């Protein structure tokens, strides 16, 4: 694992995700998650662990288009942060995420909960 570009500030997590996502490298995206993190897909049924998260992120990466992110709110309390982020994959899919990140012992921030549709209005 390379920690060269992992975020050292909570407010940089969304941009780090976009950079890694846009590289097209699933392994680079994978590094932004804690080992036992949760990913909450649009269905609302969370998956846990890196293998499940990789499966859920796979279809987004397979679109092959860049993601853009715009943090709306970042609230930090010690080593935990709540991130509310508007995101879009070039007109294909867009939503507002509600994510939780944590600063690890190594000083880098990673997702604990990634909920890309967390603030979406229910249909």
From the structure above, extract its key features:
alpha+beta, 6 strands, six-stranded mixed beta sheet, 123 residues
What does this structure look like?
The chain has 123 residues and is an alpha+beta fold. The chain is built from three helices and six strands, in the order ααββαββββ. It has a six-stranded mixed beta sheet with strand order 2-1-6-5-4-3. It is globular and about 35 Å long.
Walk me through the topology:
Elements: H1 13-23, H2 26-30, E1 33-39, E2 47-48, H3 50-62, E3 67-77, E4 80-89, E5 93-103, E6 109-114
Parallel strand pairs: 1-6
Antiparallel strand pairs: 1-2, 3-4, 4-5, 5-6
What's the N-to-C terminus distance? Answer: 39 Å
SS element count, helices: 3
Judging from the principal axes of the Cα atoms, what is the shape?
globular
Q: Main beta sheet: strand number and arrangement?
A: 6 strands, mixed
In the predicted model, the low-confidence regions spanning at least 5 consecutive residues are: none
Question: Strand percentage, roughly?
Answer: 35-45%
Order of helices and strands: HHEEHEEEE
Mean pLDDT: 92
Radius of gyration: 13 Å
Specify the helix fraction band. Answer: 10-25%
| Class per helix and strand makeup | alpha+beta
Q: Quick one: how many beta strands?
A: 6
């Amino acid at each position: 694992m390379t920690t060269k570009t992992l975020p050292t500030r909570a407010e940089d997590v969304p941009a780090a995700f976009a950079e890694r996502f846009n590289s097209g490298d699933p392994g680079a995206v994978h590094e932004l998650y804690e080992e036992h993190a949760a990913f909450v897909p649009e269905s609302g049924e969370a998956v846990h662990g890196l293998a499940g998260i990789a499966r859920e992120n796979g279809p987004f990466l397979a679109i092959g288009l860049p993601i853009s992110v715009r943090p709306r709110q970042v609230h930090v309390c010690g080593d935990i942060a709540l991130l509310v982020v508007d995101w879009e994959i070039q007109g294909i899919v867009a939503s507002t995420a509600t994510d939780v990140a944590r600063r690890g012992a190594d000083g880098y921030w990673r997702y604990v909960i990634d909920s890309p549709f967390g603030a979406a209005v229910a249909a």
